[in-house]
Specification:
By secondary structure, the chain is mostly helical. The protein is built from eight helices and no strands. InterPro entries: DnaJ_domain, J_dom_sf.
Amino acid sequence: MAVYGTSCHISSSSSWRQQQQERARQQQEQAHRQQQREEARQQRREQAWRQQDEQARQQRRQQQYQQARHGAGLQAAAAELSAPEPDVRSMSEAELRAFLETLGMSAVVAHLDSAAPCKRGSSAAAAASSSMAVLLQLAQHCLPLWEAQRLVRCSKFMSSSRATACAREAVARMVFRLDVSSSSSSSSSSSSSSSGSVQVREVRKRFKVLALTVHPDKIPKFVQPASGSQELFTEAFEALQQAHELLVHSCR
C-alpha cells in the first residue's frame, strides 16, 4: 500500500513537472514569437524610415535640379526680361514689320498693305515713304503692348514654384530695369538707410511710368482689337504691382 502511494506520488510529481515544462516551453515559444513580431515591426519601421529618407533625398535633388534649371533659364533670359524699350525710330521698314509681327500685329500690317494703292515711279517712292511712316506710327502705338508682354514674361519667372526668394527679387528688379547685382540679398548689411530710401523712390518713380504704360484701362486703340489684349494688360499690371510690393518691402 505504501509502495502504491509512493508510486502515485512519483507519477503525480512527474506529471506536474511535465506540465511545468510544457508551460515553460509554451511561454518560451510565445516569447520567441513576440520577439519575432517585434523584430518584424522594427524592420518595417526601419524600411519605412529608409524609404522616407530616400524620398526626401530625391525631392531635395529634384528641387536642386529644378532650381538650377530655373536659375540657368533666368540668367539666359535676364537680358530679354530687363531689355530697354525698342528704339522704333531707328528701325528700317523690314525691322518694323518684324517687330510688329512679334507683337501679333501681322493682320493689322496686312490690312494696311492691302489698303495702300500700288504706284510706280516717283509715286511709288512717295507711297513707300508713306508706308514707312504708317508702320512707324503703328510701332510707336504698340510699344505698350511690347512692354506688357515683357512684364508677363517676368511674371512667369516670379510666380514659378522653382523660384527662390533671391530669384524673385532679381526678376522684380528686372521689371524696373534696375541693377540686379545690387539686390538686398547680395548687398552688405551695413548699407545706409538713406540709400534704401533713394532706391524706394526710384522704384516708385519707375512704377508710375510703367503703370501708365500698361494699365488695362489705357490700352492703345491699335491694340484693343487684338485677341486677349485685355487679359494680357491685366496680367502685366498685376506683375508690375507684385514686383513693386516685393522691392519696396525688401528695401525697408
